[in-house]
Design a protein that fits this description.
By secondary structure, the protein is mostly helical. It has one domain: MetI-like fold (Orthogonal Bundle), CATH 1.10.3720.10. The chain contains 13 helices and no strands. It has helices at 2-32, 35-40, 52-63, 65-97, 102-110, 121-130, 137-160, 165-173, 178-189, 191-207, 210-215, 224-230, 239-274. Helix 1 (2-32) packs across helix 13 (239-274) and helix 4 runs parallel beside helix 7. The protein starts with a helix and ends with a helix.
Length: 275
């Protein structure tokens, strides 16, 4: 009976994996075909000639995705880094320095994750126009940093509560002030949650379409997902080139996960244990 149950469970899991891999498989098939071959052959047929490199050249020359990729990489790295810096300092202040109404301050900041982002669009658009931030990289970094701070603060706050107070007391006895304690004790121990925050926030900024579409208009400012959306064009665009763009834009997030995998797993374990 136990063997039959295991076979059933494994069969279901294999089926779900196949379902999950089908879109990836079909995207790769389209990306490896030339534009003409994709139009003239069934989408599920194997490519007769490997045209992926040619498709990359066409994608970059016709749609200039590399410009959007540079912008998104800039927003992801800088936006997530600033959010990590400010949210870690804010979490340490709320947990250890304990200002008045510290929990209320946390709720106010964390409430940024409660409301749908569509509610912010009209006020943000008006504010950006009035402050000359519309269609600027500074404005995009500002909004991406602000949007990613609440979740980052939530993770850091939960992690810092697990650090024993005795460690901080020992640092105080050794002559460390709040800033030194934060830099030399709290931050080094927060490598795992920092990896989780970096991965989640950089991936979110990289995949954002909403704010990039509303708050920017020029090619040099718009992020990669807006560039990908523009590939469809009036007539729908070329599916082979679109899937090539999908493959290109998926590589950075995959590499990010590979590089941060070790810290990400331990960080997720610590985040889960905080619950």
């Amino acid at each position: 009976m136990k063997n039959k149950t295991n076979i059933l469970i494994h069969s279901i899991l294999i089926f779900l994996v196949i379902i999950w891999l089908l879109p990836i498989y079909s995207s790769l098939l389209a990306a490896f075909k030339s534009v003409e071959e994709f139009v003239n052959t069934p989408f599920y047929s194997l490519p007769e000639k490997f045209a992926f490199i040619q498709n990359i050249k066409l994608t970059l020359s016709e749609y200039r995705l590399h410009v959007h990729i540079i912008s998104s990489a800039f927003y992801s790295v800088l936006g997530a880094s600033i959010a990590i810096l400010f949210s870690s300092m804010a979490a340490y202040s709320l947990i250890r320095l304990k200002p008045r109404f510290n929990f209320l301050l946390f709720i106010i900041i964390y409430s940024g994750t409660i409301f749908p982002f569509q509610m912010y669009l009209i006020p943000l658009h008006r504010m950006f126009n009035s402050m000359d931030l519309y269609n600027t990289r500074a404005g995009m970094i500002l909004i991406y940093t602000a949007i990613t701070i609440p979740f980052s603060l939530f993770v850091y706050r939960g992690f810092f509560t697990t650090i024993p107070k005795s460690i901080e007391d020992a640092a105080t006895i050794d002559g460390c002030g709040p800033i030194t304690t934060f830099i030399k004790i709290f931050l080094p121990q927060a490598a795992a949650p920092t990896a989780v925050i970096a991965l989640f926030q950089m991936a979110w900024i990289w995949n954002d379409l909403l704010f990039g579409l509303v708050l920017s208009r020029s090619e040099n400012v718009r992020p990669i997902m807006v560039g990908m959306a523009a590939m469809s064009g009036v007539g729908g665009g070329s599916r082979a080139l679109q899937m090539t763009g999908v493959v290109i834009t998926s590589v950075p997030t995959i590499l990010l996960f590979i590089f941060l995998k070790k810290h990400f797993i331990s960080g997720m374990s610590s985040v889960t244990s905080m619950k």
